[in-house]
Amino acid sequence: MKLAITGKGGVGKTTLASTLARLYADEGRPVLAADVDPDANLGLALGMSQEEVDSIVPISKMRTLVEERTGANEANKFFKLNPFVHRSLSSSISRSDRSSGSTIRI
């Protein structure tokens, strides 16, 4: 299942996203939570420390990875709509909830 949460500012998108991520992870489902808000707070909502959140490198700063996964480069400005993402998951930050044993990747 893929789920995207959008809407106006201040309506609870981060709260909803973090709640759903935790609920699905508690059910044993694999969860990949991505916060694309410029004022990213999803990591904090999931219980990460400020230091952990600060260590996350935004995808917009990973030009080489984006070019590799989407096929875009200086000669080709078009992106694949379904880029390969499997290997990038292994370099993501995992957050385990000790009380439930669930794991959420950010």
Description:
By secondary structure, the chain is mainly α. 33% of the residues lie in helices and 6% in strands. It has five helices and two strands. A two-stranded antiparallel sheet has the order 1-2. It is globular and about 40 Å long. About 5% of the residues have low confidence.
Give the topology:
Elements: H1 13-26, H2 42-45, H3 50-54, H4 63-70, H5 86-89, E1 94-96, E2 103-105
Antiparallel strand pairs: 1-2
What is this entry, summarized?
With 106 residues, the protein is mainly α. It has helices at 13-26, 42-45, 50-54, 63-70, 86-89; strands spanning 94-96, 103-105.
Which key features would you list for this structure?
single chain, 106 residues, mainly alpha, two-stranded antiparallel sheet, 2 strands
| Secondary-structure element pattern, one letter each | HHHHHEE
Main sheet? Answer: 2 strands, antiparallel
Overall structural class, as computed from helix and strand content, comes to mainly alpha
- How much strand content do the residues show? 5-15%
What's the number of extended β-strand segments? 2
Can you give the helix content as a percent range?
25-40%
Low-confidence stretches: 88-92
How many helical elements?
Answer: 5
